[in-house]
Amino acid sequence: MTNAHNGFRMYRADTSPPDSIRRTYEPQPGRDSPEILDADAELDLSLDPATGRVEHTLARLDAELVGLSAVKARVREIAALLLIDRARARFGLTAARPTMHMSFTGGPGTGKTTVALRMADLLHALGYIRKPLVHSVTRDDLVGQFIGHTAPRTKEALARAAGGVLFIDEAYYLFRPENERDYGQEVIEILLQEMESERSSLVVIFAGYPDRMETFFSANPGLSSRVAHHIDFPDYTHGELMTIAGLMAEGEQFRLDPDAVTALGEYLELRMARPLFANARSLRNALERCRLRQARRLVDLHRPLRRTELITLTAADVYGSSVFGDTAPVPVGGDGSGRSRDDGDDR
């Protein structure tokens, strides 16, 4: 099957839910709300149609993301909380609707957006939100440049996210105390009101670097008090990135030969020590450049090509990166000619 997109992405297993759990259980008051159970009744959670959908979503998250065990554990806890709330409702037990506004902190390329997407699926499956929708925005989408422009832009974003999740990336850029005329504070005030009054139809997720997010919430205690779940996304380890590389290549019908695997391991050791390393995002960019070098190498062979050559990335394709400087062998083309390294840094 041909991928509909170009470039390396995280490998994803077949994620279409089985027909038996494709429909989400959303009771309609007065029509299909289940009867209240007797106090001595027993309730099998596995019979709730939402349970199958939840397990499918959690399995999908495991397939999409390597590592992040603490993040996945927290997602499972949130799912368990809402499942138990559904079970309590069957016995007529009531409690305050749990707050699901969240903060995702971590460096770039650590899976925050992917987890937000799966969180929306999860909350929808459990009837907490109406739509499995994530509307992603940044400061530029919310803050206007002139008086009177910010409120309409913010309310438009909230309207698009209504019934689902509003994901605000690099949320700390909304707060610029050094500029008294900045309109970001107006966005925060609108968000505070909406997060409280629209709890039944909107989940807001703030995302960004840990230190900056801490400063952001410290300066806006009213906002912090409305965020119930603070989830940290650690940087990937070298071993996890190597696993991700294999999955990315497999997802695009490529493979790294043994020497290329060794070379990529060396590349990551060097690249991870340099500034602006963005975890899986930087790794994806590095593989894209390997693909460029492979294409140039194969075209320069000036002969018919075999399938195995078209899918194989070699050590020469990795060592061509300028990250190696003068520490690695100069890549050699198929005709034996030396090649210069590219001047990109594979960010």
Automatic annotation (TrEMBL):
Residues 98-237 form the AAA+ ATPase domain. It comes from the Bacteria. SUPFAM superfamilies: P-loop containing nucleoside triphosphate hydrolases. Keywords: ATP-binding, Nucleotide-binding. InterPro entries: AAA+_ATPase (IPR003593), AAA_lid_6 (IPR041627), ATPase_AAA_core (IPR003959), CbxX/CfqX_mono (IPR000470), CbxX/CfxQ (IPR000641), CbxX/CfxQ_RuBisCO_ESX (IPR050773), P-loop_NTPase (IPR027417). The keyword Zinc does not apply. Residues 1-35 are annotated as: Disordered. Gene3D superfamilies: 1.10.8.60, P-loop containing nucleotide triphosphate hydrolases. One of its GO terms (molecular function) is ATP binding. Pfam families: AAA (PF00004), AAA_lid_6 (PF17866). Signal peptide: none annotated. Belongs to the CbxX/CfxQ family. This is Protein CbbX. It comes from Nocardia macrotermitis. The lineage of its organism: Bacteria, Bacillati, Actinomycetota, Actinomycetes, Mycobacteriales. The gene is cbbX.
